[in-house]
Amino acid sequence: MSETKTSTFSNALIWFGAGMSIAEILTGTLIAPLGFQKGILAIIFGHVTGCILLYFAGLIGAQTGKSAMETVKISFGKKGSLIFSCLNVMQLAGWTAVMIVSGAAASQFIVDLGGTWVWSIIIGILIVLWVAIDIKNLNKLNIVAMSALFILAILLSSMVFKGNSTSVPEGMISFGGAVELSAAMPLSWLPLISDYTRRAKNPEKATLVSTVTYFAVSCWMYIIGLGASIFTGQCDIAKIMVSAGLGTAGLVIVIFSTVTTTFLDAYSAGVSSESISGIFKEKPAAISICAIGTILAIFTPITEYEGFLYLIGSVFAPMISILIVNFYILKVDYSEKRFSGTNLLVWAVGFILYRIFMQMNTVVGNTLPVMVITAFLCFIANKVLVGGKVNV
């Protein structure tokens, strides 16, 4: 693996691109039934919860120099971590397809090229190009892309918030449900962030800057989606761009935001694949995942992803809670063991708790209470079982 290190600034650019996403904007529109003020509160509270976990997950990779799925071995062992590596590759392939089809649909609305399948192929090729260039060589390209996105996002924001407030969109969503939707997006990055912080010249600083950058940009995108739904009465961001005369500029926003976000999914899928077996190599595996995502985007009806977000949260929120307790509090390491039965059992309980909490209407959403309960159970279980003596 290359020893080339990335700068703190380049990590900030990477996570600026991760937050600048059509998916974030579309998720923000789902929160509109709460109204503008309550919607913003839910967005901020959910992102604070999700980004705290994101920070500590990234810090583990920064301090150990391990990839995200390699750090999971600390809690679940060599074989136990394979469960999460496989789940991670699957969810990243799914995210790649979701992002490509979302970007393609918006691009097709702005510029008709004969069908979303054409735009899916174009976006897929651009993502492969980003992967081929490699993360350590992307700095200059990312500066150009992020500068363009920043300017165009400001233009988009001004257009959205110049609109007159319409009636609050109809729909049913509780404050807790909105909090959970806001936390779900940073949670989806939990199994990825260490893939980037481990390569930083100043890893701890890069972790903090990456998290803060993502928090700010993702909240911004959510609020654009929220405002678009309330102030323009329109949930389709592509239609807003076209009606505002933001044709070519709008297309640039859609294409670049889709590519810079989905590149992270494809790249980390490659890293996770390598952690599953040495026969997989990062770059070829990442390109393969991009190809699979493109095919799924063209041939499968991937349009609704709210349930997908909740599924990701239910898998990875308990996982990272256990990892945080083991690494920072108990300071135990099962990396050399085959698996940790104790932690796998606690994770299963956390997964079930998350699904149960989804049926409840708590003001703080699902992630925070499940995270606290899972962390407590992990601490007690490992203490009672004397640091994992029952693990094999």
Q: What does this entry look like structurally?
A:
There is one protein chain. The chain is mostly helical and 392 residues long. It is 75% helix and 0% strand. The chain is globular and about 65 Å long. It is found in: Membrane. Belongs to the purine-cytosine permease (2.A.39) family. It holds the Pfam family Transp_cyt_pur.
Name some characteristics of this structure.
Hydantoin permease, transmembrane, disordered C terminus, transmembrane helix, mainly alpha, 392 residues, cytosine transmembrane transporter activity, single chain, membrane, CodB
- CATH architecture name: Orthogonal Bundle
Largest sheet: none
- Measured as a percent range, the helix fraction is over 70%
Low-confidence stretches: 388-392
State the name of the first-level CATH class. Mainly Alpha
Mean pLDDT: 83
* CATH fold-level name: Hydantoin permease
State the helix count.
Answer: 16
Radius of gyration: 20 Å
Instruction: Give the count of structural domains.
Output: 1
Give the CA-CA distance, first to last residue: 30 Å
**SSE string:** HHHHHHHHHHHHHHHH
Q: Report the strand count.
A: 0
CATH superfamily: Hydantoin permease
Protein name: Putative hydroxymethylpyrimidine transporter CytX
Pfam family, one: Transp_cyt_pur
Keywords: Membrane, Transmembrane, Transmembrane helix
Transmembrane segments: 12-34, 40-62, 82-111, 117-135, 142-161, 173-194, 206-231, 237-264, 285-302, 308-329, 341-357, 363-386
